[in-house]
Each structure stands twice: as structure tokens, then as C-alpha cells.
Amino acid sequence: MSTATLEPRVKAPRNYLNAEYGWKSWLFTLDHKRIALLYMISITVFFIIGGTFAALMRIQLVEPQGALVQPETYNKLFTLHGVVMIFFFLIPSIPAVLGNFLVPLMVGARDLAFPKLNLLSWYIYIVGGIFTLYAAIAGGVDTGWTFYTPYSSTYSNTQVTAVAVGVFITGFSSILTGLNFIVTIHKMRAPGLTWFRLPLFIWAMYATSLIMILGTPVLAITVFLLALEHLFHVGIFSPALGGDPLLFQHLFWFYSHPAVYIMILPAMGVVSEIIACFSRKRIFGYKIVCFSSVAIAVLGFLVWGHHMFVTGQSVYAGLIFSLLSFLVAIPSAIKVFNWTSTLYKGSISYEAPMLYALGFIGLFTMGGLTGLFLASLATDVHLNGTYFIVAHFHYIMVGGAVMGYLGGMHFWWPKISGRKYPNGWAALAAVIIFVGFNLTFFPQFIMGYLGMPRRYAFYPSEFQVLNVMSTAGASILGVGYLIPLIYFIWSMRYGPVAESNPWGATGLEWQTPSPPPTENFAEIPVVTQEAYAYSAEEAEGHV
Amino acid sequence: MSDAHAEQAAHEHIGLKHQFENLDQQQDADTLGIWLFLVTEIMFFGGAFAAYAIFRWLYFAAFEGGSHILDIRLGAANTVVLLGSSLTMALSVRSAQTGNRRALVIFLILTMILGGVFLGVKAYEYNQKFVEHIVPSLDWAPEGKVLAELAPGGLEHAQLYFFFYFAMTGLHAIHMIIGMGLLLWLVLRGRRGDFTPSYFAPVEVIGLYWHFVDIVWIFLFPLLYLIGGRY
Amino acid sequence: MSHHIVPLKTYIIVFLSLIGLTLLTTGVAFIDLGPFNTVVALAIAFSKMFLVVYFFMHLRQSGGLVRVTVIAGFFWMALLIALTMSDYRTRTWTPVPKAWSITAPPTHP
């Protein structure tokens, strides 16, 4: 049995990767697939930067009175970790990489509606990133990624304005991506591709785009007002001058809560695609999953006050936000039930994408359930500001969104690169990531429950064992993330050549060669089937 | 192969981009696209309006005092000017639809002139604030009649009113300046004959943007200049 | 996009209405209507906005998708303002420590 052999150097057919060469053909491209790759490289760089900040934090926290960094520096580390990971990795990740690549292919179009805006959105992202990196180098920011006032507006001496500008700029990248997706999905579907024949990934991108359009501008005005406050100290957020710090929080969380749904909805879309393919079954309750995606997007705008239960917000407002927060959990739970029902009596196989999808279901469910503790006013009083919150959102954002991103990358890599990666190594990496992740973050639930505050450089010695476990887990997690980076790059040169549909999946993207030609399809397909016609395929003997 | 090239050339000739099947689909996409962008602008200004609403409710007397200092005649006149520019913009789009190139360009230029008048008046008003020393943080030292008007509501909170005055009209003015640049671009393209009755999307799209900026002012005028009444 | 060309007359009438409403709202500011000054001013502003959106921005000729988009935008802004305001309006419905009061006097003149 031969191991990896060099493929004979046959000239590859014309596709989007070899259509043109040279840096200009990449930096001035209008091809959504190339723009997706530009994003892929950029977000990977930011992931490494954000991960480095996290590593430094975890090393500091190995000892109760850690000596790695000064407390002021520690404040800058957790702030920049949050800013970089949220705005420059998580929010763009699936939409700007997988979404950009797949949306036109999945709807049977030749490109997105506005290719120039698409390229512009990448450049805007880069400019925003440069501002933020400048701020990081020129002294950093120590306010927390939430920039709570009046510390950030009045008292902090750090680069608040620079980061505010960076975030403001990057927001437009998000807005343009969302705008492009909505118009493409509405106006450019192939003949026969009705709304309820669309893949659930498209429904997920659509719901995500609604949030991007409606929410991101509020972040823009918020950081704009914050920058004005930081520069001119007029007092809108400062109690001493008649302002209200809570006003900042209202405006900030109006975007930042829906933002977490920007981060999770695309991952849910990926999981739907993977579960269907590797169970050889259509998704149970397809229409319900469509509606719950949109419901999450809408309801997600009504719950932001749950970040402010202990701030002095009105008790009655808190009551309403608490009730709505319980409601928003329902559509997410519905999806989990739909995925498990899809698995039931499915013909399941455990390739790497499926491992990530299954991991997602477990970890997202844990993260989601712990959210209910926090939605409940009484328990939130104790848990707010502790590591319980940190664990909760990392279970969803890392155990959920990042694993969704990795699962999607593993599922569509053959389509994107035209190459296959070694499944053994991929499965191993998935398991290492799963183990490392849980070892990193489960102890944090316990720490938080026992009272350890978040955003602290030092802690009481009774929490040390849990912190050491968490840091050990983080090291394992880091190794786990490195492995796919290596074999993906390896596969581009040495991986077996991929056929059009290596997984035997449904979906228009698999009906075109791997990698696709620049114009996506030789002829625009006509759609006659539902989205996950796996049984029909089986009947035709295509298994 | 030559068929594909001929098709591509024909597409470019009528302004059809390669990702679209026909001009109707392209125009539909353009229209939906600009409306979605305007929705983001609604939410952007919406955040500012929300902050304004909170503070107006908290410190109504201070907001009323600050509002009375503004020159209502200039505000009303500027509103009329901007509404006029919306008319000329709409007429410009109409001229594109009817294929009247000269009228299209003339109406665009008129729109720019009216926009310029608006900005000129705003510049004068801003300067007045410096003369009266009621610029928050930069030059805040009200005196005489102005001080008498502001003192009852609380000087501290009056500063908040003028913060909103400058921030919101400033944001609006930035949008207008960007709009002027876009209009200039349209004038240059229009004179070159780029627009025909079947292809004038840029004029319509920028027109929608311009109307939106007008609508923002339609709300800013009463919310900033007409607080509480002047009786 | 509208293929239907709006008559010149329509635009002129809409424009004159807008001017009329502007003069009206300015004039009403000199009459004491108490809290209704604000209500009237906003009602007039909304009417002007409707005229601009419906006629100048061709919403009249636009399909359902565009109309839903416009309505959604305004609805979402209303959501933001209303829900945020609801916090401020209901804070005093439960006893609030004096030190938390947002209308505490400023610490310097």
C-alpha cells in the first residue's frame, strides 16, 4: 500500500488558480474565489496574532502571582486578544472565506452581485487591521474589547482612538459582504433554484447577512461617539459631566450581541451541510431549520440587555431581556434536535469534516446551555464577571464557530484547492483539538462558578490547579491547530488530485470541477431537485 | 470562442456586467443593493438619534435653551435649499430616463450648487458658534445673552446639546461632501455621454443616496432647531 | 428599477408640498402647544420623509422586496430607540440609590 506519492506532473485544466499568475492578478482580482483565498490567508495571520496574545495570558495565569507580564500589560493582552479574535478572525472567517467562495457556486451564479465591492471589502478589512495592529504596537489598549466607558473615554491613556478607528473601518468590510450576499441570494439564483431548494448554508449566510446589515452600523456610530468622547471629553458617557456610561453599553451591545450570531450562524450552516453529507440523508425538518436561522437573526437583536443585568440597568428592562434571552435559545435548540434527528438511522461515516461537525454539536450545546444560567437574572448576579462567562462564550465561539470553520475547510478543501489532505492526520488533529479545547475551557466553568473573576492578572492560590489544567489544555489546543495548517499547505503540492465530488455530496458546487474554472460553470445549471437529495442519489446508484 | 468574445463585447457595450444575465437583473440588483446600503445608513444615524433621544428626555430644558440659540431662519432656509436639491436630483434622473443628456448634466450641476449653498450656510453657522464661544470642549465660554439663554437648563447639559448639534450635523455634512464628490463624478460621466435611457444606474443609485441625506436633514431640522417652540 | 417615467408635474407638486410642510413646521414652532409641539414637528417630518421616499426615491414604482427592506430599516431603528429608552424610563420604577441617579448635579460648574 503506497503512501503519499507524487502525482505525475500533468498540466492541470484551466481553473481559477492557474487562470492567471502574478501578484497583480491576485491583488486586483474580481473573482470571488480568489478574494476568498485572500481573506483565508489574512484571517489565519490574525488568528495567529490573537492566539499569541492568548498564549501569553495563559502562561501568566499558570501562577497565582505570575511574573510574565505587568498587570497593565495583561490588560492590554486580553483586550487585544478579544479585538483581534472577534473583529479580525471570527466575524469574517466563515462568511468571507467559505461564504465568498461558495455562495455564487451554491446558487449557480458566475460571481457575486458586486465583485468590485467584494474586493473593496477585503482592502477595507486590511486597512482596519493595520490601524489595529498599529495601536497594538504603539502602546496597546487596556479597556477590554468591550471598551466600557468612562474608563475608555475619559481615563485610559492607551490607543483607544486608533483601535476605535480600526474597528470602524473594518465594520464596512462586514457590511459590504452582507450586502453582496443578500443581493446575490435574492437576484442571482439559477433557474429552478427556489428558496426552499437552497442549501442550508445559503440560508445561514442570508440570516448572517441580515445581521451584518442591521447591526454593524450601530457599532460604527458607537465607536465614532467613543472616539469623539476620548478626544473631546464632552461627557456623554461620563457621569461627572451628566452623561451615562450605560448609554455606551446599550449602543455597544445592540451590535455586539447580534455579532455573536454573525459568528455562529455560518458555522451552523456548515454543520448542516456536513451532517447531511456524512449521514447520506437529507436534513430532518429542512424548512424549520431555515426559519430558525432567520428567527435567530431577528430575536438576536432583542436580547442585548442581558450583558447589562448588573450594571444598574432598569430591573424591568432586565426582566424583558431575560425572557427574550430564553426565547432566543429555542431556535438554536431546534437546530440541534434537527441535526440529531438527521443522524438517526443515517449511514454515518467519520471523515474529518464529520468529526468537527459532531464536536460542534456537543460543544455548542454545552456552551448554549450554560448561556441559560447567564440569561437567568439571579444566577447571572453571581456568574457575571467571572470565568464562567469566559468559558461560556469560548465553548460557543471556539468549540462552536472555530470548529465549524475548520469542519467547513476540511469539507470544501478539495473543491477550493483541487487536492485532498491525509484523512488520518486530519482525524488526529480534530481529536487533539477536541481534547485540548475541553481541557482548556471546562476548568474555567468551575473556576468561574467558584468565584474567580475574569480579566485579572493575579488570582487567589486556591484556583491554581484549575488554571494549570487550562494552560496545559491551551498548549494541546495550539498543537492541534498547527497540524491542519501543515497538511493543508502540504496538500497543495503533494496531495492527491481531487475529483469534482470526492464526498458524493449534493449541491451545485460539487457539479463543477475541483478547483472550479474562473466562470464557475461551463453552463449555468438548472435545478430540479430538493437540496439534500441523497436518497435519490442512492436510488441511482451513486453512493 | 469568437461567440463568447462577441457576447462579451456586446455586454460591455450596453453596460451589462458579466455576472448578470440581462440588464433587468443587473438593475434590480443595483437597486436592492443601494437600498440595503441606505438601511445601514438608517441604523448608523439611528444610533445617534437614540443617544440624542435619551439626552433630550433627560435634560429637556438644556436642549430647549440650546435650540433657541440656533438661527431658525437659516435652518429653515437650508431645509428649503436641500429639498430643492432633491427636486433637481430627481429631475436629473428623469432626464436620464428620457435620454436628455443636457438636462441631466444641468440638473446635476444645479444639485451641486444647492448642496454647496447648504454647506456654505452650515459653515457660517459653525463659525457663529465659535464667535459665541459655544463649541463644546474647544471653545466653551458662553456669555451675555447666550449665557442667559443656556443657564436655566444647566450649562453642563447645554454642552451636551451642542455636542449633539455638532456631531449630528457634522456627520450629515460629511455625507453631503461625499455626495458632492459623487455628483461631480456623475457630471463628468454624463458629459461624456455614458448614460442612456437603458443604462443610467449610477445616476439613480447616487440619486437615492442624495435623497437619503436630505431625509436625515428633514429630521435634524426640527430635532435641533425647533425644540420646545419659540413663543 | 422603474421603467415608468414619473411626470414632471408630480415632482413639482411633491416639491411644493415639501416646502409647504417646512414652512408649516417652522410656523408651528412659534405657537405654544405644550408637549404637542414635538408631536406635530415629528408628524410633519415623517410626512416629508414619506413624500421623498415614495415619490423622489421611486418607492411607488418599486416591488415588494424593496418596500420590505425600507420598512425593516425604519423598524429596526425604532427598535433601537424604543428598547434603549425603555431602560431609562423604567429605572425609577424600583427604588434607586440616590448616588446612582443620573441627574446628580455635576461636580464642577
How would you describe what is shown here?
The complex is a heterotrimer of chains A (about 550), B (about 230) and C (about 110). Helix content of chain A is about 65%, strand content about 0%. Chain A has helices at about 25, 30-60, 70-105, 115-135, 150-155, 160-185, 200-230, 245-280, 285-300, 315-345, 350-375, 375-385, 385-415, 425-450, 465-495, 535-540. In chain A, helix 2 (about 30-60) packs antiparallel against helix 3, helix 8 packs across helix 13 (about 385-415) and helix 9 runs antiparallel to helix 10 (about 315-345). Chain A has about 550 residues and is an all-alpha fold. Chain A contains 16 helices and no strands. Chain A has a single domain (about 30-540), classed as Cytochrome c oxidase-like, subunit I domain (Cytochrome C Oxidase, Chain A, Up-down Bundle). Chain B has about 230 residues and is an all-alpha fold. Chain B has one domain (about 25-225): Up-down Bundle (Four Helix Bundle (Hemerythrin (Met), subunit A)), CATH 1.20.120. In chain B, strands 1-2 form a two-stranded antiparallel sheet. In chain B, helix 4 (about 70-95) runs antiparallel to helix 5. Chain B starts with a helix and ends in a 6-residue tail after the last helix. The mean pLDDT of chain B is about 95. Chain C is mostly helical and about 110 residues long. Chain C folds into two domains: about 1-60; about 65-95. Chain C is about 65% helix and about 0% strand. Chain C has helices at about 10-30, 35-55, 65-90. Chains B and C meet through helix 2, helix 4 and helix 8 of B and helix 1, helix 2 and helix 3 of C.
